Amino acid sequence: MKTKMRLDKMLGNLGYGTRSVLKGLVRQGAVTVNGNPVKDPGMQIDPHADEVVLEGERIVYRDTVYVMLHKPAGFVSATEDRRERTVLELLPEDLAVFSPFPVGRLDKDTEGLLLLTNDGKLSHDLLSPRKHVPKTYQALVAGRVGSDDIATFATGVTLDDGYVTLPAELRVLDDSATESRGDSAPGDPEEAVAPAERAIFTAEAARARLDTVPALQANRTSLQEAVAAGEPLNWVEVTIGEGKYHQVKRMFESVGKKVLYLRRQSMGPLPLDESLKAGEWRELTEEELERLRNYKKAGERS
Ligand code: URA
Predict the structure, then answer these.
(1) Same domain, yes or no, for 139 and 206?
(2) pLDDT tens digits, residue range 79-133?
(3) Is 125 a catalytic residue?
(4) Which of 101, 161, 173, 174 is exposed most, by the fewest CB atoms within 10 A?
């Protein structure tokens, strides 16, 4: 395996400047390698073994990044798009320079956990249809979700194109507080939903917050219609082991319900960090990365 690379390339890969800026800096004597001043920007170094210091800062090389993003509504899960804002625009330049890409897709109006990495192998393994990595979503659904829907999801839902989904687990999180009466009943799913967010899952509150919750605005008309028709709104959780196009929305459509809001809570062993607000991100911890890798390996054995 090739272990050496040009000094200016190493610094460029880490986002310390363009090749021409870096060439200038090296020639001016701003860089030392293993304590020795160097003047040759093309010097071959081992980026993992050699100690490179740029203007007094010790440079730690890495070539992979793993980012947990709380995707907000209004951004597409792509690296480039001619019309829409992409999730890449939510990352700072010093991470974007590693060219991470989203592991799978969330719809433009879906919020929640999105992993971004430039580790193609891990991404491939997590998305492989053979691995069935479970993804859990919470959703606000118009229409009464009942035991018949839970049974249908458990056996497999026939989608609009005839595809029968793998068995999925459906749970109704809040059966009482979400009636379009709009009052908030005792017994809310306190543990499942943070108070500020729980507020959008009553019909009245959802209507009141239409203008401030972008994910709800995307379904403004449907929400208003559901409220006007006195339809119940249910706050549900669903776990699927595959990732077909618009899968959760289409599963509910197949049983006559409409998803008004969707948020991914977890992917395999990785839950969304609840301290991240929509639009915020952080890098994965070593422990989280290990969990993902080991999980993938466990999947391989089964
Ligand atoms: N299912 C959907 O319908 N949309 C998403 O964004 C993710 C899963």
Answers:
(1) yes
(2) 999 999 999 999 998 899 899 999 999 999 999 999 999 999 999 999 998 889 9
(3) no
(4) 161
The C-alpha atoms of residue 17 and residue 46 are separated, in whole angstroms, by 19
Decide if 190 contacts 197 (C-beta within 8 A): no
> For residue 277, what is the DSSP state?
P
The one catalytic residue among 107, 125, 149, 174? 107
8 A C-beta contact, residue 70 and residue 271: no
Residue 244 Cβ < 6 Å to ligand 1: no
| C-alpha to C-alpha distance for 98 and 47, rounded to whole angstroms | 15
Question: Of 13, 37, 59, which residue is a domain's last?
Answer: 59
Examine the domain organization and report whether 191 and 287 are in the same domain: no
CATH of the domain at 158: 3.30.70.1560
Rounded Cα gap, residues 50 and 56, in angstroms: 15
For ligand 1, atom 2, the nearest C-alpha belongs to: 246
158 and 210 co-located in one domain: yes
pTM of the complete model:
0.81
Q: What is the CATH number of the domain that holds 33?
A: 3.10.290.10
What domain range includes position 96? 64-128+275-302
Q: Which of 77, 163, 251, 262 to mutate to test the pocket of ligand 1 (most atoms within 8 A of CB)?
A: 262
Structure token pair of residue 69: 């993003």
Ligand 1 contact, 109 CB (< 6 A):
no
